[in-house]
Design goal:
Blueprint: H1 15-38, H2 56-80, E1 85-90, E2 95-100, E3 103-109, E4 112-113, E5 117-120, E6 125-128, E7 134-137, E8 140-143, E9 146-148, H3 151-156, E10 169-171, E11 177-182, E12 185-188, E13 199-201, E14 205-206, H4 209-218, E15 224-227
Helix pairs in contact: 1-2
């Protein structure tokens, strides 16, 4: 469910995964060298069977060099993660994670924007129900949130739009908590848990009660949110 209609698009950072891939490649090369050194050679012939350019001391030196490179890449990867908690949202797979550095604290299904459009023919307005992608921060936390239905909610149901706030407030549809990250977008609970894992929302991010509780406890104002 979405509180506003303004859209924001920023490319999400992918450098974490690139650094992780580099570590895996370096580890593979190290294993390949060790296997090449040992494969098919007994204790007595292990050094004599090797070409002069790939003798045992050379292989040990190369392995030590690769280990040092792996260590540096690992340290660099760890520095890329924020030291405190952060929220990651994969809007393509509809997965949400709470991480602490490289460690995953909690991870599970969510629901993000459907991408559908709604047009108000009478007022010449159009809404696109997408979850914004990019870098955000937690801006607000609300316990027992109340949803104030925006104009599109009435148009979607074919109901007349009220003039003021009367008739807009709806309680008990957003779960126990709502975490705001700007422009009327929130991470919140849902009555429709069977739809988690699908792109069905009006732009907000829905999660189940267990994940919502953990996110709310960890999501102090200012912690980063990456949506990609």
């Amino acid at each position: 469910m979405r509180f506003g209609a303004t859209k924001l698009r920023i490319s999400a950072p992918q450098i974490w995964w690139a650094a992780g891939g580099a570590v895996l490649i370096a580890a593979f090369l190290l294993v390949l060298i060790v296997v090449t050194r040992r494969d098919g050679m007994g204790p007595e012939e292990s050094t004599s069977a090797l070409p002069a350019t790939l003798d045992l001391p050379t292989l040990r030196k190369q392995a030590a060099s690769l280990e040092a490179r792996i260590q540096k890449l690992t340290e660099r990867q760890n520095r890329l993660f924020p030291s405190g908690p952060a929220i990651l949202v994969d809007s393509g797979a509809n997965r949400i994670s709470l991480v602490q550095g490289p460690r995953v604290i909690v991870e599970g299904k969510c629901s993000t924007g459907s991408g559908l459009e709604l047009t108000d023919t009478a007022g010449n307005r159009t809404w696109t129900f997408e979850t914004p992608r990019g870098f955000f921060r937690v801006l607000s936390k609300v316990a027992n949130p109340v949803w104030y239905r925006p104009d599109w909610a009435f148009i979607e149901e074919g109901e007349p739009i009220p003039k003021g706030h009367a008739g807009r407030a709806v309680a008990n549809v957003l779960g126990d908590y709502a975490i705001g990250f700007g422009d009327g977008y929130f991470i919140h609970g849902t009555l429709y848990t069977r739809l988690l894992g699908s792109s069905v929302t009006h732009g907000c991010i829905r999660v189940d009660d267990d994940i919502l509780d953990k996110l709310y406890r960890a999501a102090q104002p200012g912690i980063p949110i990456w949506i990609y």
